[in-house]
Amino acid sequence: MATIKDIANKLGIAVSTVSKGLNGASDISDEMRQLVLDTAVEMGYASKKMKASGSRKVCIFIENMDYENIEQFGYEIIVGFKLAAARRHWDVNVVPTNLNMQTAEKFDSYMLKNGYSGAFLLGFTLHDDWVQQLNKTSVPTVLLDNYIERNNHIGYVGTDNYEGIDLAVSHLYSLGHKKIAFLNGSKNSMVSEQRQQSFITSMEKHGLEVNEDLIEYGYYVPDCAKDYVPGFVKHGATAIMCASDLIATGVITELHKLGLKVPEDVSVIGFDDLPIASQLTPSLTTIRQDRTDLGKSAFLLLDGLVHNVTISKLLLRAKFIQRESTGPCKN
Amino acid sequence: MATIKDIANKLGIAVSTVSKGLNGASDISDEMRQLVLDTAVEMGYASKKMKASGSRKVCIFIENMDYENIEQFGYEIIVGFKLAAARRHWDVNVVPTNLNMQTAEKFDSYMLKNGYSGAFLLGFTLHDDWVQQLNKTSVPTVLLDNYIERNNHIGYVGTDNYEGIDLAVSHLYSLGHKKIAFLNGSKNSMVSEQRQQSFITSMEKHGLEVNEDLIEYGYYVPDCAKDYVPGFVKHGATAIMCASDLIATGVITELHKLGLKVPEDVSVIGFDDLPIASQLTPSLTTIRQDRTDLGKSAFLLLDGLVHNVTISKLLLRAKFIQRESTGPCKN
């Protein structure tokens, strides 16, 4: 493993300058600091802070996901992670990120500069610069709902989407529904693709016809419902499975606008079990993702990676929560 | 949750008799003891021992798998599990099982009688009585290489078979091999089915023809090679991917019998990276399952289940180990 001296030799500068660069001292230029960091990363340098087993410091990076209050998806994930980390006396920083920040600095350099031993990335997509850099990183990193092939330093944590969607389809099937529509979240998301495939597999498993007019990709926001609900109704859907509770709130609003009652005319199921699910009228039948446990499991996984236990995937059970938005099919 | 008194009331017997039944006392009949245990399980009784958070006792049940010395597949898995358990001061018993034992007593009754808080099952198949009973158990249980749907108390630990097989196919592809045969392990095993599907998917991903004459299920023993290797050779295979190192040893022996050299005439890849892989002539290129980490991860998972973190699947990375049994394709 490279030492500070190796980096100094390679760049032909003083050891003290390298040390300043690594520690973010202000009396060297930004360019020199960046050059030192990038060279250190390239040479596989890891600081004492990163390797320290006593009190480690790790970082949760978050984007495209709300997390400030308990109503929001990210909140309990972060709580769960912090709870598990506290038990091992690890420090956790939460850092909101954006594309600019990712363009400005490479992931590995950012981690090295700040002495982080590992990271948990929430809400990132495969298009993010930092996610693309994860193919080659040696910094232990856990991704929520995204998977990186062939890098032993990266793990994926999430909920078992197949079982979740299958629980929902089974429930609707048991209520007599045959024409079940699926309003998915955004395309180009691994989770959406898994849910799409799971829906088709589960419909076939139950001997139900997979009708392309009843399957659509939308977005993970309520507003997308207005573009698809009228079409689903026109094609005879008696139940609508939604890829998130937020989408389901939009679907219920649209059904009401069309003069249809939930669940008397159309049953609706969500996914996530956010606090809003129990507050809606009618309250929402949904598939629960246990977010506190997702956070705890992300920590377990990161702890494993830091100790060279190369966990690739850790999936939690999805849980079926029956409420009032689903009922027997009358058609 | 049921108490000893509830059980006594239900059976119309004295509390002291229930207590004797639960503690395995010898001054009541076998039938009465069994009745007490089965009733306790049915009523959801959990003993103080099972719930104790101080010093828990868990059990590794093992069958159809050798584990007595380091050459064998189960050895390091058990070591890894025990290492992780010791760090949390949990006691671990290793209990070899067989079909008779499973017929004689139900899984839940066995666990209750012995005060185990959880179990790790190695080498079981979906046909085992105890595995079939796992659909309904509430005893935290981890299975190696088997998955139980819809029970939040059960977890599955294993190696990412898709990535493992894909690493092997990629390697052979990069050496110019196109006619790649696959000698799988036993049918009716979840792992064999995953590897079969992974092989087909990976071949297609690499633009290679999937030839049914070159794909066979065998058994996880060297001896099965003699039934399939001549056919593979006849159909022009230049490389043989094996579902285990033991199968690969049989394949190499058969190739030698046919007057073919490894890797000059036919390349061979194993799976597992048992100690024997590096001792063979030629030494065996293989896909490594890190067995110590499988054991450690099984404990992590069980610890999660005991604390109601409902982990469903935990998969480890498969690792490509290049040795001498693979070489460039000359055809």
UniProtKB/TrEMBL annotation, chains A, B:
PROSITE patterns: HTH_LACI_2 (PS50932)
Transmembrane segments: none
Molecular functions per Gene Ontology: DNA-binding transcription factor activity; transcription cis-regulatory region binding
Keywords for the protein's UniProt record, in alphabetical order: DNA-binding, Transcription, Transcription regulation
Domain spans labelled HTH lacI-type: 2-57
Pfam families the UniProt entry points to: LacI, Peripla_BP_3
InterPro entries: HTH_LacI, LacI/GalR-like_sensor, Lambda_DNA-bd_dom_sf, Peripla_BP_I
Stated name of the protein: LacI family DNA-binding transcriptional regulator
Source organism of this protein record: Variimorphobacter saccharofermentans
Record lineage: Bacteria, Bacillati, Bacillota, Clostridia, Lachnospirales
